[in-house]
Amino acid sequence: MVLVPLRPCRASVRLLPLLCGGVRSKGASLSPGVPGRLTQRRYKKDVLPSPEGPIPSVSVTEIRQYLRAQGIPFHDGYSCLHTPSLFTGEQEAQQQPPSATSAPYTLFIDKTTGSFLCTATLAEGTWQDFQANVELRHHGIPTPSPGESEEDTRRAREDARCIWDRALPLWELLDEDETHVTKAMFGISTVTDATLKRFGVRYLRTAKSLVFPWFSPRDASLKGVKLVGVESQEDTITYVEQTLPRPGSYRNLFGLPLISRRDTEVVLTGRELDAMALYQATGVPSLSLPRGPTSLPPALLPYLEQFKRITLWLGEDLRSWEAAKLFARKLNLRRCSLVRPGDQQPRPLEALNRGLNLTKILRAALPAGHKSIISFRQLREEVFGELVNVDQVAGIKWARFPELNKLLKGHRRGELTIFTGPTGSGKTTFISEYALDLCMQGVCTLWGSFEISNVRLAKIMLTQFAARRLEEQLEQYDEWADRFEDLPLYFMTFHGQQNIKTVIDTMQHAVYMYDITHVVIDNLQFMMGHEHLSVDRLAVQDYIVGAFRKFATDNTCHITLVIHPRKEDDEKELQTASIFGSAKDRKLLTGPGKRYLQVSKNRFDGDVGVFPLDFSKASLTFSSSGKSKVRLKKMKEEKAPVSKKAPAGGTGASKKP
């Protein structure tokens, strides 16, 4: 089974009351001198643009042309264009665009999105913001400096400072035995005190957590912290993480202050402990990504521009391997190498603990880009990896639907799932829980709900997340909403009929910006009206499905596509032909008071079958409560219309290409 990172929100419930001593009320400040002060916290969930106000796309060619026209010097980097900053103090006194000799090149413009970041002032914005600032300079108006932090960010910094001041350097604990016990508890007995001191790791006794600092690259002030606790089960150590500020705003490349301008090589790891172990064993500059293999925010790319060689060593499972290949695309394949997970190439900390040669492992890293595959020799390690890690290859298991795991084995990238069912059978409600289950396990999810509003969808998912009706327990809303917001979940703001190209472009943007690996489209019929009105609707549907299938393959992303079936008699069970007019799918069934999920096409290993679902109106969930014994009935793959003896009704169908 694939190992999945624990959600930070779970850690917060256990750790927050202990961080600064005493019990902290929900929303209470951790600021010194303001104990127990209740505050109202407001957060805005990321949404992707609607056609009424989309983010205008810009190509790197257009960016170069604009910079030349404005007389702004620049040079090409790996992921960004480098220019002198518009925001440094020296530049504000000027009324002309910066020249090649007037300032260092500290402003970076993303070649894919046009977004910019000034590493000298931390000013950032869209391509349109950059153009607006250039126009202000032309009119003699000083470029505005970065504004003050939002209230929530400021409070998070105060909380982080409170935690940091109360934590003790791990190498300076009063009791030497306590130091040994603590290091053993976290599996870092081989990490020396000199390494811990170099990276500035502290220990918070009250929370029994390591504390990793996030220092601003501009003025070395403390911007946040990450707390890492540990849960031990037999011989397995599981790390539990919590960040301040919250995960969406925590963009700490741990180890960045230790990087010299002369360094041209770096290793990216998935955990802070791995970065320390790697540096200790090899002396190679090492950084840790803030959310491990889950995401590489584009805002971090400017800090990696100086390196001519980047090695990605994110973990020991296939999920980390897939993430490394995707991140290499952002970083530029030419300079990236990947450490393939394996028994003799585990994550860096484990390799150090086992006495393996980490330098040798780094030297064996594979180039991220190949011009072509010319023989089985270049594929044999990939094949061996899949044979050794059968469960991981099968994908991420559903926690709420164990019977679905028996049929599909797991959720895998690069596939297309088609889901169908009659009107009112609960398609959207089921799919929202189906996707939520994966999202809670760290699968970055993008929802495209064209039929119901995002507010209504979020309400359904929040109810499923909390497993209770929050309208009857409003005092718990903030607690559950805070946890829900920490999920890697994003929404498109489309509603009603949309053009397939606009939807695909938005999905492409989301994959780059947020490392989306699961896209839910509900439903396909809302893209039919914009495509080829004079052509047969079945042909149009095939065209749209083909576009989504290609996107899934090209972007190593799983797409779940909801399709309404053709209208048929209420007593007639849904067939594969209810969608495509020919046999190539899977489905879900309903009867009076009962619903069944039926898989009728599974290209991973061919298993198909049907099992009942119990719907809970209170929690809006279909997952089994554990009280009733779910009976799975395996079937042969459909080659003819399903017999009427099967459970009657219908709620969904899917396909795995």
From TrEMBL:
GO cellular component terms given for this protein: mitochondrial inner membrane; mitochondrial nucleoid
Annotated ranges, domain SF4 helicase: 390-583
PROSITE patterns: SF4_HELICASE
One biological process term in Gene Ontology: mitochondrial DNA replication
UniProt GO molecular function: 5'-3' DNA helicase activity; ATP binding; hydrolase activity; lipid binding; single-stranded DNA binding
Keyword list, A-Z: ATP-binding, Helicase, Hydrolase, Nucleotide-binding
A family per Pfam: AAA_25
InterPro entries linked to this entry: DNA_helicase_DnaB-like_C (IPR007694), P-loop_NTPase (IPR027417), TOPRIM_DnaG/twinkle (IPR034154), Twinkle-like (IPR027032)
Annotated spans, Disordered: 624-657
Protein name: Twinkle mtDNA helicase isoform X2
Taxonomic source organism: Apteryx mantelli
